[in-house]
Amino acid sequence: MGMFMALMLAAIAVTRLFPDTGTGRFLHRWLAEKPAAWLATIERKHVIFLALAALLVVVLREAVPMVAGAGDLALFAMWDASVYLDVVMAAWTIAALARGRSGWAVVRHRLGQLVARRRPRAARPRARRTRAVRPVANDDDGDGWALAA
């Protein structure tokens, strides 16, 4: 508990002493602005429901052990804890799959942008096709003087 209080005091000190830094703005946003916005959405009906639930817990804390024996309460507590852990693990698995799927979509999108951003190469002119030159049939291998007949 002491470590947590020291951590919170350090967060408050950073927020108050260094409000213009990135860390100060981050801490102020998540430790002051977001909770204040959430508290602003609470209505009177929520407060009444919370008060009734707290009163019910206080009243039933005394009555439940009288109705059920200690063994029944122990079995109920074990069943409740196992169901709770199953639900938490299922929610964690679903959240991890959703994050992985969305993360993969972001990676594919960024790679697509990277590929699309590359400039295409300049088109090279196509080489013209040339026909092989056949040797002429009346060429002599002589010294180049033509003989007349």
Describe the structure.
The chain has 149 residues and is mostly helical. The chain is 72% helix and 0% strand. It has four helices and no strands. The radius of gyration is 41 Å and the shape is elongated. The model has no long low-confidence stretch (mean pLDDT 80).
Q: What form results from the Cα inertia axes?
A: elongated
Ranges with pLDDT <50 over ≥5 residues?
A: none
β-strand number: 0
- Summarize the helix and strand pattern as letters: HHHH
- Please describe the biggest sheet, giving its number of strands, its sense, and whether it closes into a barrel: none
Structural class: mainly alpha
Task: Give the % helix.
Answer: over 70%
Our Rg estimate from Cα atoms comes to 41 Å
Distance between the termini: 123 Å
The helix tally amounts to 4
Quote the average pLDDT: 80
Overview in brief:
By secondary structure, the chain is mainly alpha-helical.
What structural keywords apply?
149 residues; mainly alpha; 4 helices; 0% strand
Task: Annotate the secondary structure layout.
Elements: H1 2-17, H2 22-40, H3 44-67, H4 70-117
Helix pairs in contact: 1-2
